[in-house]
From TrEMBL:
It is found in: Bacterial flagellum. Gene3D superfamilies: f41 fragment of flagellin, N-terminal domain (1.20.1330.10). The keyword Chloroplast does not apply. This is Flagellar hook-associated protein FlgL. Residues 6-141 form the Flagellin N-terminal domain. Keywords: Bacterial flagellum, Cell projection, Cilium, Flagellum. It comes from Sanguibacter biliveldensis. One of its GO terms (molecular function) is structural molecule activity. It comes from the Bacteria.
Length: 303
C-alpha cells in the first residue's frame, strides 16, 4: 500500500521540526547564559526537588552560623567581664592584706583602703551588669540589669532568672551562651554566708577597716569568691571552644553543600557550548530544508 504524502502534510512536518529545533536552541542558549541546568521545576522535577532540599540545608547552615557567631560574642563579653572582675578582686585582696597589717596602718590609711575597696565594689557591679546587644549576660532570660542597688541600704540584689540563654548550633545541638551571675558574683547580703555576694563582702571589709577591726579572715573569703569566678570562666572557655569547633565543622558542611548544589544545578559549560554550536548548525540546516519545502505554489501567485 502506497501512502500519499501531500504538500500540506510535508509543510506541517517541516514547520513542526523547525519549531522543535528552535525550542531546543532557545533552551541551550538559556542554559549557557544562566549557567544553570534547571531554571524551572519542569526542566527536571527530580533534580529540582534535590536542589530545593539542598538550598533548605544551606539556609539552615547559614542560620546556625549566625547563631554561633552570636554565641561567641556573648561568651567573649562574659569572659572579659569575669577576667576583669578577677583582676579587681586581686587588687582588693592586696588592699585587705595591707589593711590586715594593723601595725603599719593608721586611721587615715585604713580610710583610704576602705574608700578604694568601695570603688572596686562599684567597678564589680558594672562588670556584673555587662550587656550584649542590650541584654544582660549574667541575668539569664530576665530583662534589665543582673544586679540593682538599694538606694537606702546600699545592698545589691540579684535580679536574674533561673532560665538560661542558648544558641542552636545544629539540628539537635544547643550551647549555653550566658553565665550564672549568682554563681559568679554571689547573692547573699550576709558576708559570712557561703553564697555571700562580692558586694556584701567588700562593704563589710570597708566597715571593719574604718572600725579598726581585724580583717585577716576576710582574705580567705576573697580567695573563695575568686575561685568561684575562675571556675565559671573555665566553663565559659569550654563552651567557646565548643562553638568554635561547631563553626569549623559547619564551614566544611557549607562548602560541601555548595559543591552538591553545583553538581545538581550547574551546567557543564564546555559540553553545553559544543551542543549549542551543533544545535545552531542543525537549526540553520532546518531553515534551509524548510525553505525548500515551503516553495510558493500556483495558489500563492493567484492570491
Amino acid at each position: 500500500m502506497i501512502t500519499r504524502v501531500t504538500h500540506q502534510s510535508t509543510q506541517r512536518a517541516a514547520v513542526t521540526n523547525l519549531q522543535a529545533t528552535q525550542s531546543r536552541l532557545a533552551q541551550l542558549q538559556e542554559r549557557a547564559s544562566s549557567g544553570k541546568m534547571i531554571t524551572k521545576a519542569s526542566d527536571d522535577p527530580a533534580k529540582a526537588a534535590d536542589a530545593m532540599a539542598l538550598r533548605k540545608e544551606q539556609q539552615a547552615s547559614a542560620q546556625y552560623s549566625r547563631n554561633i557567631q552570636d554565641g561567641v560574642s556573648w561568651l567573649t563579653s562574659i569572659d572579659t567581664a569575669i577576667n576583669t572582675s578577677v583582676s579587681y578582686l586581686n587588687r582588693a585582696r592586696d588592699l585587705v592584706v595591707r589593711g590586715a597589717n594593723s601595725g603599719a596602718t593608721n586611721a587615715e590609711a585604713r580610710e583610704a583602703l576602705a574608700v578604694e575597696l568601695e570603688g572596686l565594689r562599684e567597678s564589680l557591679a558594672a562588670q556584673a551588669n555587662t550587656t550584649y546587644l542590650g541584654r544582660s549576660v549574667f541575668a539569664g532570660t530576665a530583662d534589665g540589669p543582673a544586679y540593682t542597688q538599694d538606694t537606702v541600704t546600699g545592698d545589691y540584689t540579684y535580679n536574674g532568672s533561673p532560665g538560661i540563654v542558648e544558641r542552636r548550633t545544629g539540628a539537635g545541638t544547643t550551647v549555653r551562651v550566658d553565665a550564672d551571675g549568682a554563681a559568679v558574683f554571689g547573692t547573699s547580703n550576709d558576708p559570712d554566708a557561703p553564697d555571700a555576694s562580692v558586694y556584701a563582702l567588700l562593704t563589710d571589709i570597708a566597715a571593719k577597716l574604718r572600725a579598726g577591726e581585724d580583717i585577716q579572715s576576710d582574705i580567705t573569703k576573697i580567695d573563695s569568691r575568686k575561685d568561684k569566678m575562675l571556675s565559671e570562666v573555665t566553663g565559659v572557655g569550654a563552651r567557646t571552644n565548643q562553638l568554635e569547633s561547631a563553626k569549623e565543622i559547619l564551614g566544611h558542611k557549607t562548602m560541601s553543600l555548595k559543591g552538591d548544589l553545583s553538581a545538581v544545578e550547574d551546567i557543564d559549560l564546555p559540553a553545553t557550548l559544543i551542543e549549542l554550536q551543533m544545535q545552531e548548525v542543525a537549526y540553520q540546516a532546518a531553515l534551509g530544508a524548510t525553505a525548500r519545502v515551503l516553495q510558493p505554489s500556483l495558489l500563492d501567485y493567484l492570491k
